Amino acid sequence: MFKKILIANRGEIACRVMKTAKKMGIKTVAVYSEADRDALHVEMADEAVCIGPAPSKESYLVMDKIIAACKQTGAEAVHPGYGFLSENATFSRRLEEEGIIFIGPKHYSVAKMGDKIESKKLALAANVNTIPGYNDAIDTPESAVEIAKGIGYPVMIKASAGGGGKGLRVAFNDQEAFEGFASCKTEAKNAFGDDRVFIEKFVEEPRHIEIQVLGDGHGNCVYLHERECSIQRRHQKVIEEAPSPFLDPATRKAMGEQAVALAKAVNYQSAGTVEFVVGGKDKSFYFLEMNTRLQVEHPVTECITGLDLVELMIRVAAGEKLPFKQEEIPMNGWAMECRINAEDPFRGFLPSTGRLVKFGPPADEAGHVRVDTGVYEGGEISMFYDSMIAKLIVHGPTRDSAIARMRDALNGFVIRGVASNISFQAALMQHPRFLSGNFNTGLIAESYPKGFDASMVPHDDPALLVAVAAAMHRQYLARNAAISGQMPGHEYKPGADFVVRLEDGTDHEVSVVAKDGGWDVTFGGEHYAIRTDWQFGEPLYRGTINNEPFCMQVERRGLKYRLFHWGTQADIMVMTARAAHLQSLMPHKAPPDTSKFLLSPMPGLLTQVAVAPGQEVKAGEVLAKIEAMKMENVLKAERDCVVDAILAKAGESLSVDQPIIGFK
Predict the structure, then answer these.
(1) Nearest to 444 by CA among 339, 304, 362, 552
(2) What is the pLDDT of residues 424-473, one digit of tens each?
(3) Position with higher pLDDT, 503 vs 18
(4) What's the CATH architecture for 132-201?
């Protein structure tokens, strides 16, 4: 067994690999960019080596620097994690030439299966069902349009070296094929150093289901059941679960055996994933691609099988045999994973960067909740890398129990300082189609065609929010009175009445009375006995309401309380009757007019300004492109206009709402 391994990655996956390595008694080496000098994976490792500036193409993607770090530290093996160089055959071959073990498949397997074009050809040769398409690299956008028309819209334009939704576009017409081809090539070049692009038919109403495979160097290969990955936004997975609520045992077996046959065809030795698109009506399945690495969503497989995939990868790389046979692999209960990302669902999921002022993962009191992360409270979320903050995983005996545990876990996950998608994840956990298990990859786009906002997550008991806000305000005033010494004549009277104003402008008269160490709240004929040991300033408001346990996130913002509960984000103001009357008399101030400017919707790097002063622009034309968190974002004109001035230059780092272009 290895004595020391280097993890050629960062963030959550680097920390995940280190945990298993330390459990196995193996020392670890971290590599880091200048932007990651204070990162959690650097702190966790036994040794750490700086490999360059913040951009990944100058650090994490530079093979020479990683090989040099191995030699400098005496690391015998390299675990690549996922992304970066994990599916780069040249990297694994160079490590082998240097006498360093690659903890993953052999370079020839990576070359054949990690390349989306070559893997599809191999699958065809092995009589595996494949999606119709053009399996060679395409050179020009004009060629892409002609090929797409030949296949028939809609089509998927995909980077050959792609993964994680990067370098992938769906086109429904010639214009989208033309523009999507250019964006895919740019994204692929920046993310993977390989700009080859191909096209295949887009199967409508598909499900995305993948099979986890595991092979060793002694001819053994097994499948570890499936993962349901159909809940996606912009082709990036949002929620994953194992097993799938859609597959029956016969289909599961057929898909698993086909995945193993494909892996054996390339003498696959490590953990890998064969992805399938599955028809929703007849359970027909087609080979999509093979990821020759560990997947982001591997924890759900670990939960239902009880296996540590990272440990198995390390043992296989060290020459050991798989310690079990296909029929010995269990499938216990149901597991679910939510990707917690630094993005604002209420602003079109724009990336969010900055300092994590608060980072409080949910408690795991019964051993059902797992949080994999590479961040810590006070750390920075950088614009240079992907937006993942953490992976939240739950396990239960049934799918319904896993969903219930995920709802509670999301409710108790506190993140402040940057925006997160927790509210959106919580909304999905209540979506009728998700709950039924009857969904496909279009669920999010179909359910939120105009975007996501707080009104789409109405609380099932808004009166509860009113009661809690009133009790919290009463507790806040009592605390202030105690701090001030309750000067004579200024005591806060028990049983004081408030007016609680909701975001829709409605006012509710509420009575709050101190009782039994808590508060009895009455309004609208309803009574709430709220008991809590909460201290003002804590992010989680816990206790009981009418003897039932509850947990709610709270943030005081000036005169308002922001409450987070089961996906609802509500700003509630609690006032005296006089204050409510004065508030209603205050004049409304109109927001400033920004219609004559193109504002940056996110922090990021301005990679292109596509127009010039005096230029007439039609609605839908490209104005500028911004790169943020490894994704290219194209900004288009919303209406016909004339450019007045260019206010930012390509290569400039932009802040949110920074003007880029002015219009006449």
Answers:
(1) 339
(2) 999 999 999 999 999 999 999 999 988 888 677 778 788 899 999 999 88
(3) 18
(4) 2-Layer Sandwich (3.30)
Neighbours of 329 (CB within 10 A): 19
Q: Which CATH class is domain 597-663?
A: mainly beta
DSSP state of 590: P
**Which is more confident, 629 or 502?**
502
The answer to whether the CB of 43 falls within 8 A of the CB of 37 is: no
Return the SS3 of 519. Answer: strand
Q: Which residue reads 């679910």 in tokens? A: 336
How far apart CA 246 and CA 510 sit, in angstroms, is 47
| 64 CB neighbour count, 10 Å cutoff | 9
pLDDT tens track for 284-341: 899 988 999 999 999 999 999 999 999 999 999 999 999 999 999 999 999 999 999 9
289 included as an active-site residue: yes
> How far apart (Å, rounded) are the C-alpha atoms in residues 269 and 235?
28
Contact, 225 vs 242, CB < 8 A?
yes
Nearest to 595 by CA among 626, 638, 649: 638
| pTM, two decimal places | 0.81
Confidence bin at 589 (pLDDT 50/70/90): low
User: If you count them, how many residues does the chain have?
Assistant: 664
Q: What is the pLDDT of residues 141-157, one digit of tens each?
A: 999 999 999 998 989 99
pLDDT at 487: 47
Q: What is the pLDDT of residue 489?
A: 44
We find that the CATH architecture of domain 4-103 is: 3-Layer(aba) Sandwich (3.40)
Question: d(Cα 561, Cα 500) in Å, to the nearest integer?
Answer: 10
In which band, very low, low, confident or very high, does the pLDDT at 490 lie, cut at 50, 70 and 90? Answer: very low
Closest CA to 350 of 569, 602, 658: 602
Q: 621 forms bridges with which residues in the sheet?
A: none
Radius of gyration of the chain (CA): 27
Q: Which of 429, 417, 464, 449 is nearest to 572 (CA)?
A: 464
Say whether pLDDT at 610 is over 70.
yes
**In what helix (H) or strand (E) does residue 555 lie, and over which residues does it extend?**
strand 548-557
Question: Which one is catalytic: 176, 226, 289, 337?
Answer: 289
Q: Check for a shared fold between 206-454 and 462-585.
A: no
Give the angle subtended at the CA of 493 by the CAs of 487 and 497, to the nearest 5°. Answer: 140
**Residue spans per domain, the chain:** 4-103, 132-201, 206-454, 462-585, 597-663
Omega of the bond leading into 539 within 30 degrees of 0 (cis): no
Which pLDDT score, from 0 to 100, does residue 590 have?
66
Token duo for residue 305: 């099988």
Amino acid at 253: K
- Per CATH, the architecture of 206-454 is what? 2-Layer Sandwich (3.30)
Q: Which option is the CATH number for 462-585: 2.130.10.10, 3.60.15.10, 3.30.700.30, 3.90.1150.10?
A: 3.30.700.30
Per-residue model confidence as pLDDT tens digits over 208-261? 999 999 999 999 999 999 999 999 998 889 999 999 999 999 999 999 999 999
Residues 6+ apart with CB under 8 A from 54: 33, 34, 35, 36, 382, 384
Task: Give the β-pairing of 77-79 and 101-102.
Answer: parallel
What are the phi and psi torsion angles at 654 (to 5°)? -100, 150
